[in-house]
Amino acid sequence: MSRKSVHSVFFSTVNCLRLLPSCRSLFSKAGHSNTQILSIAMLLCFLLSCFDVNAQTIDSLSTNTDSLRLTADSLAIGKDSLLVDSLQLGDDFKSKVKYSADDSIVYDIPGEKIFLYGNGVIDYEDIHLTANYIEINNEQRTLFARGVKDSTDTVRGKPIFKQGSEDFNAETITYNFKTKKGKISEISTQEGESFIHGETVKKMADNSTYIKHGYYTTCDAEHPHYYIAANKIKVIPNNKIVTGPANLVISDVPTFVLVPFGFFPNKTGRSSGIIFPAYGESNLGFFLQNGGYYFGMNDHIDAAITGDIFSLGSWKLNLLSNYSWRYRFGGSFAVSYAETVNSQKELPDYQVNKDFFIRWNHTVDPKANPNSTFSASVNAGSSTYFRNTLSNANNFLNNTFQSSISYSKFFPGKPYSYSVSLSDIQNVSTRDITLNLPSATFNINRITPFQRKYASGSLRWYEKIGVSTTSSIINTISTKDTLLFKEEAIKNFRTGIQHSIPINTSFMALKYLTVTPAVNLTERWYFKSFEKSYDAAADSVLIDTLEGFKAAHEYSASLSANTRIYGQLQFRKGKIAAIRHILTPNVSYSWRPDFGQSKYGYYKYVTSDSIGTQTQYSIFENSVYGTPGSGKSSLIGFSLDNNLEMKLRQVTDSAVNIKKVKLLESLSLSTAYNLAADSLQFSLVNLAARSTIVDNINVAATMSFDPYATNEKEQRINQYYLKTDGNLLRLVSSGLSVNWNLRGKKTDYQSSKGTKQELNSINKNPDDYIDFSIPFNLAVGYSINYTNGAYTADNTIQTLSFNGDITLTPKWKITFYSGYDFIQNQLSYTTLGFYRDLHCWEMRLNWTPMGQQANYNFQINVKSSILQDLKLVKRKDPEYFN
Question: Which of 257, 291, 396, 504 could form a cystine bridge with 248, CB 3.0-4.6 A?
Fold first, then answer.
């Protein structure tokens, strides 16, 4: 017999002897003699000793202070064991108490107690308790749990108490089933993102807890790196955590940060609340920054109103809202207004800058309506907004902001569709702004009107003739942003309507040539035209705007032919298996009549000076869709594209594999000749090459040549360069760019923790996310461009740019962005970023060491969003704030 079996028989015998008085009382009332009662008791002891105590089950054992009652079905005996899995303890218990233990279960009948040894488990209603030692007291309706020391004096199997969403780790636990109150010592529990540790805890019937000598933290380490210590803490589940006087402790060192009370939200989901501001000092004075209120309206939409205030008079107000309806649409909206005060009123350089900026991004889920789309991307505001307010490098370097709001509609089974959009382009450097309010397009997709409805065999050439049409309207204005909202700006809007009808087909000729003839018809409608006249007194040309509808039509024709020529050189031996060359020649011809002739009425002549010089002008010049071309065009075009590839043999033990390598992705040459021109018939000769080296180095080069010479004013003249200089072509411009991208192999540094809400936040704010799983990123770009054929500093641009990031350790990350201007011999805009993961804290340093934007921003803060305002910030603003 094993040691465990002997142990079980011993305790079974003892318990049977304890049951003997109760059995005698029970069976005596039934009329049994003492001998019979003793025999029954001995039989019961024998049966109990034959089974493991841990596998016992008493389905119904009713105990009180007067007697122990055993009903006929109180013992359920199976084939191999006697199972004890639940116990009805008194009349105060609404449910059965289910229990088990790995080692043993001991019943103290007179004392009305049950003892669980070795990984004891208690389940009662929504309560789940595990511990190495558990004691149930039926008389007092309580339980007590603790761990047990092993041979090394290490306490193992400490109590873990779970009730609903609450989870406690403790040294000892005492719980009253009747009052549903408990007392816990040395508690450790998690509440949402927070962790609470305490010396003594009282659990109340409403599930709230009172903690004595406790501390609050968001650090999940067993020994937290920081915490807020308080003598009294009250936790209201899914509501809030409140403390008495509290002190911030970092690395077990108390700090000077003392508060009279603490209040921490403890709700799941969205909730409204105050956003506490950051404080500090800058060149604009002492400040409170990003303080305000958050409105957690519902799961679809939220909003936050924040502001900055500076002691020298500057201030800023922000409104930010995010919204999302699943399978419908989502987006974000932000608007900011700022007043920046420079200098003081008594000084001559005193100035108050008023700026605003609006961002709106909106997308519609394709599942909402597959036949239409709507999107918005709005970035608009004052041209000096990012100069007068501290911004990141991308915003500071970006001179152009674009906005677009568009809607498109498709008709299933129909060949037509339409779209409407509003857009603007804003250059903050030149302060130019272009608005299109609105533009609309109606399209009819290509149709083949001559195609047979039931065709047999291949299509005839005329059956491939296709016709499509595009009608568009635009209302636009280009002006300075300072003049945009003036009354006269309305008069400067330009409106036009254009209809375009391309007719084309394609067919094979001479077996290998693809021939594409095409005809293009264009009609333009305008509501304004212009007329010029010469004012002899002022010696100037006057322009009159004529209101009224006018139309202008234009037509042209073209014919192109292209083919592909393949050449391949194969090698039977060696690493190189073959070299293939693909040559793609293209010849085209286009024709357009001279719409500058007087019979069309699109062009007129005006005297431009006192000596009577006549100058041709278009009555539609500066119109939105332009004007029909002046001068006859009969243009022959030629282009030649080359592609060079190599196949390499890769020999392995089992086979010979062929790998394709691109030696030259493209090498193209193009030019044109105008048969109808009376001079300068040749166009520029353009040469372009592009290739990829070692999979991550991209090289591109362009060159433009002119067959004509120039005069002293660098103007083209009708004289070949070969005749004046002895060379066939004159170099006009050239450029070379090399881009190298290198990325390290991804590791498993990055934590997999995170909720769906945190993932959405990362996608919306990728600059705030640090990915340690990629050891390094490096992008290097070199470019050189020059024009007019002279290699001088006046017309040459040569720059080197590089950016990337390096993961020094699983906790250190460095980012950088810089470049070098070889003409100016100086570094371009340079920024450095340092990030340190401090487990529950994080440190950031962003530094721009030079230039007008020179600044730094150092911040160390708690990661948790609950304590996002627990941070230290030190910064130096750019020079233009001085």
Answer: 257
Closest CA to 278 of 390, 392, 394: 390
**CB neighbours (10 Å) of residue 748?**
9
Distance CA(216)–CA(263), nearest Å, equals 11
What is the secondary structure of 681-715 as a DSSP string?
-B--EEEEEEEEETTTEEEEEEEEEESEEE-TTS-
b/e string for 67-82 if b means 16 or more Cβ within 10 A?
Answer: ebebeeeebeeeeeeb
Burial of residue 666, with CB atoms counted within 10 A of its CB: 0-12 exposed, 13-18 middle, 19 or more buried: middle
What digits encode the pLDDT tens for the residues 827-862?
Answer: 888 889 898 888 888 888 888 888 767 778 888 877
CA distance 176 to 165: 19
Nearest to 754 by CA among 746, 743, 763: 763
Burial of 196 (0-12, 13-18, 19+ CB in 10 A): buried
CA dist., res. 603 & res. 594, Å (int) = 11
Residue 303, CA distances (Å) to 309, 321, 866 in order: 20, 4, 17
Neighbour tally for 355: CB within 10 Å:
19
Do residues 457 and 451 make contact, with C-beta atoms less than 8 angstroms apart?
Answer: no
CA distances from 287 to 316, 584, 768, 862 (A): 11, 66, 23, 21
pLDDT tens string 134-168 = 998 888 888 899 999 888 888 888 898 887 767 77
**Cα–Cα distance for residue pair 437/484, rounded to 1 Å:** 13
How many helices, marked H, and strands, marked E, lie in the chain?
6, 56
- Nearest-angstrom CA–CA distance, 198 and 186: 5
Distance CA 183, CA 500 (A): 84
Report which residue type is found at 876: K
33/14 Cα distance (integer angstroms): 23
Which candidate, 773, 767, 766, 771, places its Cα nearest to that of 747?
A: 773
Burial of 813 (0-12, 13-18, 19+ CB in 10 A): buried
Contact 563, 513 (CB under 8 A): yes
pTM: 0.62
Among residues 580, 583, 586, 579, which one has the least CA distance to residue 564? 583
Residue-level length of the chain: 882
Please say whether the beta carbons of 175 and 160 come within 8 A.
Answer: no
- 451 and 459 Cβ atoms separated by less than 8 Å: yes
**Structural contact between residues 21 and 34, judged by C-beta atoms closer than 8 angstroms:** no
pLDDT at 7: 40
Backbone angles phi, psi at 867, to 5 degrees: -110, 40
